[in-house]
C-alpha cells in the first residue's frame, strides 16, 4: 500500500528524496515570488514517484482486462480508496487526505501515464463530486456523504440535489460501448417521477 495521508508525506519524501530535489528545495524565493509549477517540493516529488510506482505495479497489469470488461477492477477501486486517492483535497475532518490542488494534478498525471480511465475516475470523483460538497454542502451533508465519498467503495440557475442510488424511479442504463477509456464507465441515468426531499438540496435553491 502507498498511503497518501498527509501525516506520512514527510516519511515518503525521505524515501524518495534525490540530490536534485534536495537542491531545489533549498533554493530561496522571496515571499512575493511564487514558486514555478515545474519546481516541485520534496513532498510533491515523493508523491509523484509513489503514485507512479503504484500505477505501474498495481494498475498496469490490469489495464487490458479492464478495457475488455468496460469497468474498473474492484480491487483497483478499493486500492484507490484505501490509499486516500478518492479524497485528495478533502480536509482530514471529513476523512480526506487534506492535500492541495497541485498534488491532485500530480496524481492524475501519473495515473494517466498508465490508464486514462482510472485517472478519469479519480479526477471526476475529486474535482466534480467532492469539491461540490465542499463548496455547497451543509455541514450535515458533508458529515453524512463526504466522509463516505472519501473512504467507501461506494451552473447558476440550476439546483443540485443528492439522489441516493436506491431512490424509486432512478435507473441506470447499460454502459456505452465507447471508442476509448472504456474502463471508465459512461451510462445514461434515467429519472422517472423521482421524488427528492428538500433536505437533499445541495447548496442553495436556484444557485
Describe this entry's structure for a reader:
- It is a single chain.
- A two-stranded antiparallel sheet has the order 1-4. It has a two-stranded antiparallel ribbon with strand order 2-3.
- The protein has helices at residues 9-16, 19-26, 42-59, 63-69, 74-82, 101-114, 116-136, 139-151, and strands at residues 160-161, 170-172, 189-191, 201-202.
- It is built from eight helices and four strands, in the order ααααααααββββ.
- It has a single domain, classed as Orthogonal Bundle (Butyryl-Coa Dehydrogenase, subunit A, domain 1).
- With 207 residues, the protein is mainly alpha-helical.
- It is 47% helix and 5% strand.
- α1 crosses α3, α6 packs antiparallel against α7 and α7 runs antiparallel to α8.
- Pathway: Lipid metabolism.
- Residues 41-151 form the Acyl-CoA dehydrogenase/oxidase N-terminal domain.
List keywords for this structure.
207 residues; mainly alpha; Butyryl-Coa Dehydrogenase, subunit A, domain 1; two-stranded antiparallel ribbon
> Taking Cα atoms only, what radius of gyration do you get, to the nearest Å?
19 Å
CATH class: Mainly Alpha
Structural class per helix/strand content?
mainly alpha
The strand line-up of the biggest sheet is: 1-4
Q: What's the helix-strand series?
A: HHHHHHHHEEEE
Helices and strands in order:
Blueprint: H1 9-16, H2 19-26, H3 42-59, H4 63-69, H5 74-82, H6 101-114, H7 116-136, H8 139-151, E1 160-161, E2 170-172, E3 189-191, E4 201-202
Antiparallel strand pairs: 1-4, 2-3
Cofactor: FAD
GO molecular function: acyl-CoA dehydrogenase activity; flavin adenine dinucleotide binding
InterPro entries: Acyl-CoA_Oxase/DH_mid-dom_sf, AcylCoA_DH/ox_N, AcylCoA_DH/ox_N_sf, AcylCoA_DH/oxidase_NM_dom_sf
Amino acid at each position: 500500500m502507498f498511503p497518501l495521508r498527509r501525516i506520512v508525506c514527510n516519511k515518503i519524501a525521505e524515501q524518495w528524496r534525490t540530490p536534485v530535489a534536495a537542491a531545489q528545495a533549498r533554493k530561496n524565493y522571496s515571499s512575493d515570488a511564487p514558486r514555478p509549477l515545474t519546481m516541485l517540493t520534496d513532498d510533491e516529488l515523493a508523491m509523484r514517484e509513489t503514485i507512479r510506482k503504484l500505477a505501474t505495479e498495481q494498475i498496469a497489469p490490469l489495464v487490458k482486462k479492464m478495457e475488455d470488461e468496460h469497468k474498473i477492477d474492484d480491487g483497483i477501486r478499493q486500492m484507490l480508496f484505501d490509499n486516500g486517492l478518492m479524497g485528495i483535497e478533502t480536509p482530514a475532518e471529513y476523512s480526506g487526505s487534506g492535500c492541495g490542488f497541485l498534488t491532485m494534478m500530480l496524481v492524475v498525471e501519473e495515473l494517466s501515464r498508465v490508464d486514462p480511465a482510472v485517472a478519469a475516475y479519480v479526477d471526476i470523483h475529486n474535482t466534480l463530486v467532492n469539491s461540490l460538497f465542499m463548496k455547497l454542502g451543509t455541514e450535515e451533508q458533508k458529515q453524512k456523504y463526504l466522509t463516505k465519498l472519501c473512504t467507501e467503495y461506494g451552473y447558476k440557475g440550476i439546483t443540485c440535489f443528492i439522489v441516493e442510488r436506491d431512490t424509486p424511479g432512478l435507473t441506470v442504463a447499460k454502459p456505452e460501448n465507447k471508442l476509448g477509456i472504456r474502463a471508465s464507465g459512461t451510462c445514461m441515468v434515467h429519472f422517472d417521477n423521482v421524488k427528492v426531499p428538500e433536505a437533499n438540496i445541495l447548496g442553495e435553491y436556484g444557485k
